[in-house]
Every structure is written in structure tokens, then in C-alpha cells.
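User: My instructor asked us to take a sequence, write out its structure as C-alpha cells, and then describe one feature of it. I'm not sure where to start. Here is the sequence I was given:
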Amino acid sequence: MILKALYDYYYRCSDLPRKGMELKEIGFLIVIDKDGHFLRFEDRRKDKKQAQTFLVKKHIGRTSALAANYLYDNSGYVFGYSDKGDVMAQYHTFKDNVSSIYEAHRDNNDIIAVYKFYQQEQAEILEQMQADPLWSDIVKNLSKKYSTFSFLIEGDTKIVAEKIELLDIEEETSSADQQVCIVSGKKGIVVETTTATMIPGSQATAKLVAFQVSSGYDSYGKSKGGNAPISEEAEFAYTTALNHMLRSDSRNKFLIGNRTFLFWASKDDEAGKQTEESIFNMFGFTDQEDDPNKNIEQVRKTFNAIYSGSLRTSLDDKFYILGLAPNSARIAVTYWSELPLKDFAARILRHFEDMEIADTRKEKKPYVGLRSILAAVTLGGKSSDATPNLPEAVIKSIFQGIPYPYTLFAGCIRRIRAEQNLNITRAAIIKAYLNRIDNQHKINVMLDDKNTNQGYLCGRLFAVLDKIQDEANNQHSIRERYMNSASSTPAAVFATILNLSYHHSDKLNDGRKVWFEKIKQEIVDKISSDGFPAHLDLQDQGRFFVGYYQQTQWFYTKKEEQTSEE
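Assistant: Let's start with the prediction itself. The C-alpha cells for your sequence are:
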């Protein structure tokens, strides 16, 4: 299923490399003249993490055997230098490969220049290179992914490795050994091993599909790829698609800890494009560092359009999400989802609905982005400090429509207690968690005066007492001293703070005093005849904080109404 979805994605995209080629990051170019003399190094890095990509012949899948790539490779192969020991065998392998290409293209001026480069003494070439200003930087970064080298002829705009006339791409030919491919269903030549598709944290040779020898996977006299036949065409398609989405500037992936999540739509239409862009805006952390949730409202509009039908989709339109993790020499699949696009939109919209709560701020800022959620439950408000498994658990809750993780809810309560700070994001998280585990008693977006849950009522009443003190004395000592105990053991503290509120009320004018008294009485009338609860469990403590938050927001709304009436 996964391989077929990746295979289809390759043919969905019109701009991916054709069979036998790939886009390769090459960080440094060796500039030579037409006679093969070294002139200088040229830096093609974009920044410290990535470099320019070039369309070259697909790289060789190397194990312990020597094998040179086609006119590009690492420093050991290209000019015989490494900080890890003797690499002259690699250098001569690459040199022999250049000679073979030269024999097949004796009339090509570019390969003639490269061939002449290798007719010089390796020690002399290396001495010239070490005098280049870029040499020290090259040596420092030999272990980087982009530390790959190729040739550029002085005055040219294309590197030698991407010259199509030199590539000699072999087309698949008919063979008696062809088998039916398990991915495409077509007959083709079967691969023995598959191409590396490394992800962050994995080895450079890591693969999504790997075949072992003599480990219980061999059967009926077949080995390696013969047990699960994948054609060369299908293997190239799905690995190219995978590497395309894994590239450093991809907008079809996001990273959570050591997990890499890839996502794509089955069709390259408007709905598919907007869905992909929306998921990146929700979970990708590369854009809008100053305001990571800047585009969240547009995300909501996109999924509303898909779900309502104003952005046209069909029953065949699907959306895929693939979670990957490094695992020894392989890549482990940690998550896979395949849903009709409309159903996927419904799950995202449910997340928006669950996280929606009263917001009286003039400039309303969406808070449903993953980064905001994680930051709300960490010390210091840094999403990067979230516990290792929490981000992935939140994502799965959103994508699968299952309850949010208990650790998110508990972490939110813990931060409120520690900081005495109940902000909109934390209130939204508590509401969303409680609504998903209890469909029968859902909490509204706005204040619900019909809600008789004792924790919710205690929270509302506490907000009223806090507001009275604020208006009377312009301080919040009740909140600072009693909120934690009021939210867990109401019976122990409410008698005290109710008595305090009478003293605070005496400082208000008669009209305001009566108004607050009516609100208090409306809430107290719903409290159990047995009195305030002796103890609230953690869920009702959550309802306490939501009740407190919504009652506080209600006061702001009333103040705005009074101001507008005046």
C-alpha cells in the first residue's frame, strides 16, 4: 500500500527525474579549463545545511565494495583525499570510471577535459587544491551530506555530470527473468537490492525496503529481491518520490523529534495542492518563525471548502501520511494513514472545533498549530522542550480523531498550577481533551450557564470572587493564594474566600454590588445541597479551569457591551 502510493506520486508529479537519474546535492565544484588544469573550487552551498541540487545519473548503492558514481562523488573518490585513512583505491576506481566514459565519448570536449585532469599526478593536483581559499572549509565539512564534488568547465553553466549527452541512461529491455512486480502489477526486471532513502538520524545507506540473506527471508531457492519482486521501474519511481519528499526544502514533510512525517495527496489538483500546503502550515516549523500560526486561519478555510464541497473533490481523492523513524540499517514505518480527502478534512476540522474557545482579544490569533499546543505545556514555553513522545501522540490524535493524549492534559494542568497562568491555549487544550473523552457532556465554546458540573461551577464562582477583588482593590491575591486548592479541594477554601468577597463587595457601588451578588447566587444555587465538593478529580479540575476561564472572558464581553452602550 505504501509503495504503491509512493509509486503513484512519482507519476502524479511531472517534474521528477526520469528513470536512471536523480536530483543530487553537490556542495563543491572543481573548476577546470579545457586542458584539464585545476583552476579553483566553487562553493554551491545554500547555507550550512544544504547545497544546490543537480540532475545527475542515479547514485550507486555502495556496500563494502568499491564503486564510483558517474562523474560526481565524495572527496576520496574524486581527488583521493579523506580524513579517515587511505582512499587511493577509491580514487583509482573513480579514475578508471572516467576513462571508461572517455572511451565511449572521445569526441566530447567536456569529458576530454576531465580525462586530461586525471592524466596529471594526483599529488600535484592535491597540492594545488590545498592552496585554494576554500580548502579549509571543505576539510571541515567532509562528513556533511552535501560534501559531494563534480566538475565544471571554465565558462560553462552546466556541470559535466548533468550533461545529458554523457549520461548513457540504459532503458529496460525484455528478459526471460522478468517477473510481475508487487508494486505496479506489471512485468519487469526485478531489483536485487533497493536504493538508499536516508532520513534525519539514519545511516546514509538506510532503506525503506531492505532484503536480508540467510536470515529466514530466503525461500524456494530465491534470495534478496526475488522473494518480493519489485521491478526496476517501480523501485526507481517510489525511491525517487520518497527522496523528493525528504529533500531539505520539501514542503511535504515535517519533523517531530526523531520522527519524519511525509504527506501527499493522490491528485495534483487544486484541492490536493491546498491540502498539502495547509498541513505544512499546521505542522512545518520552518516558516513564520516570529508568528508560527500566521496561516492557521487559511488552513481552516481550506478544509472547510473541501468538506463543504466548494473546493471540488471526488470519492477517489485520497490523502496519505507516512511516519518514519531511523532504525539501525533500515527505516522503520511508525505511522501510516490512507484516507479519502473529504474524511481527512473532517478530522482536521474536528480538531479546530475541539480547540475553539471564547476569545475576547482584539487581534484573535489561532492557537491550534502544533507548536502553540506544545509550548503551552512546557516550562519556558518552548515547543522543543516537550517530552519526546508527546508531539507524535498529539499528531496521531489529530489525524485519527482519537482522544488527545492524557500527558498533554496533565501537563497543561501542571503548568497552570505552577505558573498561576490560565491562557487561551491552555483553556482550549483542556476543553478539547475533555470533549473527546466525554461526548455526553461537551463543554461549549462560550460560557455555559446550564452546565451543572460541580468543578465547572466552582471555577465560575472563583472567577466571580477574583473579579470582585480586582474591581475593589485592583489586585488578585485570591487567585494567587487559593486557586490551586480551590481547584482540587473546594470545600477547604470556598468558605474563606466567600467571606473575603463580602469585604471586597463593600468597596463597590450599590449597583455593582447587587450585580455581582446576582451572579454569585445564580452559580451557588447550582452547587450540590451537600455543599462544595471535598475533592475534585483531575478531569473536574480541568472543568474548574475552563469554567474560570469562560466566566472571566464573559466579564470582558460584558465590559465591552457596556462601553459600546455608553
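For the description part of your assignment, you could build on this observation: The chain has a mean pLDDT of 89. Try explaining in your own words what that tells you about the chain.
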